[in-house]
Write a structure and sequence with these properties.
Helices cover 11% and strands 30% of the residues. The protein is mainly beta.
């Protein structure tokens, strides 16, 4: 059964990081990027407290490169390692609390074979932007607002490439709030099984880093 199109809504491109380069495209995401969301923007998610050890079974580790203090106009990248294989999604929470998926993007998916563009292998550092996307001119350039921001690495056990992130009922305050919110929200997601096409539960792992934009 061919996978369905991802459930997603129109939202600003990137609140914090601008993806620039001659390789940018406006093509639609590949059909292989698929995810079904069972609930969004549920107020009851907020009281959920995510214990850090329980949300990182794959031992995901995220690094902000070259450092966790960056300047507007500078270039930035991210290094991710994990103990288990999985599919990486990077979510940025800017200084004003706005949440955006910055990797993978529909543009990157449209210019690749799509299926394994975000596959992380155990013990091998996965750098974003990837070498292939750099060759096509993609780079991350830091943009306002300035202040304290948060980057979240989400590793999905099953193949997931696009998340339709929920609208936030209020501003996320720091790492703990972002981790708790995203952990609770993803626990409600159901992902298509590659073989049967049925919607099934999924295992997610997280790491989170704060960084400062000047």
């Amino acid at each position: 059964m061919p996978p369905s199109q991802p459930i997603r809504q129109e939202r600003p491109w990137l609140a914090l990081l601008v993806l620039a380069g001659s390789g940018a495209a406006s093509a639609a995401p590949l059909p292989s990027a698929s995810l079904h969301v069972s609930t969004t923007n549920a107020p009851w998610l907020w009281p959920v407290q995510a214990a850090r050890g329980q949300t990182n079974a794959a031992n995901v580790s995220l690094q902000v490169l070259p450092s966790q203090t960056v300047n507007v106009g500078g270039k930035i990248s991210f290094g991710v390692t994990a103990r288990k294989p999985g599919y990486l999604i990077l979510v940025d929470v800017d200084a004003e609390g706005r949440m955006s998926q910055i990797f993978p993007t529909p543009e990157l998916l449209a210019q690749s074979d799509g299926r394994d563009i975000n596959l992380v292998k155990p013990g091998v550092e996965f750098v974003v932007p990837t070498p292939a996307s750099r060759q096509r001119g993609f780079e991350y350039v830091v943009a306002p607002p300035t202040g304290s921001a948060v980057m979240v690495a989400i590793l999905s056990e099953r193949r997931v490439q696009l998340l339709d992130l929920p609208d936030l009922p209020r501003k996320l305050q720091g790492q703990a709030a972002a981790l708790s919110y995203l952990s609770a929200w993803t626990s409600e997601l159901r992902v298509p099984d590659d073989r049967s096409g049925k919607l099934v539960s999924n295992n997610w792992s997280f790491d989170i880093k704060s960084y400062t934009i000047k």
